[in-house]
Amino acid sequence: MILDDIVAYKIKQIEEEKRELPLKEFENKVQNVITRDFKAALNKPGINIISEIKKASPSKGIIKPDFDPVAIAKVYEKISIDAISVLTEKKFFMGSDEYIGQVKGVTSKPVLRKDFIVDEYQIFQAKNIGADTILLIVAVLGKKLKNFYKLAKELGLNCLIEVHSREELEIALEAEGEIIGVNNRDLRDFTVNLNTTEKFMKYIPKETITVSESGIKTPEDILYLKSIGVNAVLIGETFMRNIEDIQAVEDFILKAKGK
């Protein structure tokens, strides 16, 4: 399965990074890093939009050949989106940790580090590189989620907790997750079904912020998700393929927000 391959590679990568930069060298420093409020950005009335910065994915290959994360972030700063997701996974998504600082340098919006967290070291690492929020995937962490989530909160990080099944949702709710992301893409085979979010809505408490992820291609998709009570959507490929046409992207967003 694709997820198993990513996790296996990530475990090896993190062991190498620990040797290169041991936690003790920056563990205390991260306490003083100021973060932006990702949760507040998604908790405004209406539908809120997290726009993604990514070069590639295992299912789509190269999405943006002439990839410039700073230029993309500058576009997102100008238009009516609410937060930014940055892919930092190196091998499968062609991301980089360096993108976090580059993006935060040109935008006022909170930034999510989107990666595959397998080790608590990465939570400190995320804070150290300037992320405001991290992604915690229940399919990766299982019952370890609760401890990872607790540590992230202690460090002042928000967490987007990603689920794709009822069992995973129960784990997320047991950890008292405040932001639940329902991934419409099955990480086992990368198939997508937008109706996945609707199936979960009745089980998610109303006070919990719900984010729908993957497969969102049109303003009508977003209006549908808004109608079932979703607070926010995460959009990647749709914007990446059209980022040069700023007006078209802005028109898409305004229509999706009913403006």
Distance between the termini: 41 Å
How does the helix and strand content classify structurally? alpha/beta
Largest sheet features? 8 strands, parallel, barrel
- Return the domain count: 1
Element-by-element helix/strand order: HHEEEHEHEHEHHEHEHEHEHH
- Number of distinct beta strands: 10
> What radius of gyration results from the CA coordinates?
17 Å
Name of the CATH first level? Alpha Beta
Kindly report the CATH topology: TIM Barrel
Architecture per CATH nomenclature, i.e. the level-2 architecture = Alpha-Beta Barrel
Widest sheet, order of strands: 1-4-5-6-7-8-9-10
Looking at CATH, the homologous superfamily is: Aldolase class I
Q: Percentage of helical residues?
A: 25-40%
Fraction of residues in β-strands: 15-25%
| Count of separate DSSP helical elements | 12
Compose a concise summary of this entry.
Residues 3-250 form the Indole-3-glycerol phosphate synthase domain. The protein has 259 residues and is an alpha/beta fold.
